[in-house]
Fold this protein.
Amino acid sequence: MAKPKTSSPRSEINQRVSDRIVLASELPQNHTVLVYARPKVGKTRLSCTAPGVILLDVDEKGTSSVKRDLNPHVFPASTWGDCVDFYWYLQEGKHDFKTAVVDGVTGMQLLCLNFVLGEQAALDASRDPDMPNRVAWGKVGKLMRTQITNYRNLPMNVVFTALTRAAFQGDDDDEDVDRTIGPAVTPSVAGHLEAAVEVIGYLQKREVFVKVKGKDEKKKVVRRRLIVDGTERFLVGDRTGTLGNYVDAPDLTKMFNLMDAKEET
């Protein structure tokens, strides 16, 4: 009597892979953005223009600029455990929020460092809890990269904010030293964060004079511009190719709609 044919391990693998192959246009169209700027330029306010926002306030205390009009839902985080708990709340999916804002990554790294130093002090009472060593920074980098990936993979839009940091490349004695402005986190975390998002933008605030309608005079107003491409001074980038070199008076809901419209054409 002939034995029934059984599928080989390789054919089962082929079937599993085949069942998961889709067109890029069929993947979920959630957006990921990194916005960084100097303090009090408007990072929090810009991030809250995204649809259905819930904001993780990582010791930024920047919500005073949005509570009177945009008034987003806020979860204040003062420990690394708070940042982890907030992720699991969002991952569970029992909410109606469309955009998670991590405000900001610079503060999150500090909470992570405090957590790691506390662990080290608990294991070795002779260690100075305020002096991180190489092992501590290595663990901070690993924890931060994991958490950034976790947030990036949430089934919703995700916006990260950060403060600025200047990086110098070249010899100090060389006149051609390059000065690049990027997010204020350690290099290993910065590289991972920059690769995790679709759009990296540097937000700047400018004071300009505009003519008053119907009058022969000008007034000073504040304009905000989000630089996303076309410069080597700032670490920026637009993977979607939809936003040009910059966006004046940026609004994330409008930017997301523009990205989606480009994807549908």
Observations:
- The domain at 29-202 is CATH 3.40.50 (Rossmann fold).
- Helices lie at 9-20, 43-47, 80-92, 105-123, 134-152, 187-196, 252-264.
- The longest strand covers residues 199-211.
- The chain has a mean pLDDT of 86.
